[in-house]
Structure prediction request, 99 residues.
Amino acid sequence: MAKFCSPRKPIKIRLSTRLIMVRSTIEIDEQIELLNGYESSESIVDSLKQKKKLLFLLSEDEYKEPVSNWAENMYDATKLDECFYFSIAKCPLPFVEDM
Prediction:
């Protein structure tokens, strides 16, 4: 029986100097579609397709940055289960509380 992966907002938990970021496979697919609409780097799209990296833009201002700058917001991905991937990043990162 297939698992249902519900789309959610990114889950972010700040732990001392680390930030845990979680993405569903649905969110990753949506980001790939978004990037295909822009003139984005193939390496960014390929990293997302292969689930090697996760893209986290933590504010609307970051979405307004040129797509060429988005590579700075790619983090190594680790599979959590069939529906979710996570990344743990070292701070300091801007932390947005009202997502």
Remarks:
- The mean pLDDT is 81.
- Residues 11-90 form one domain.
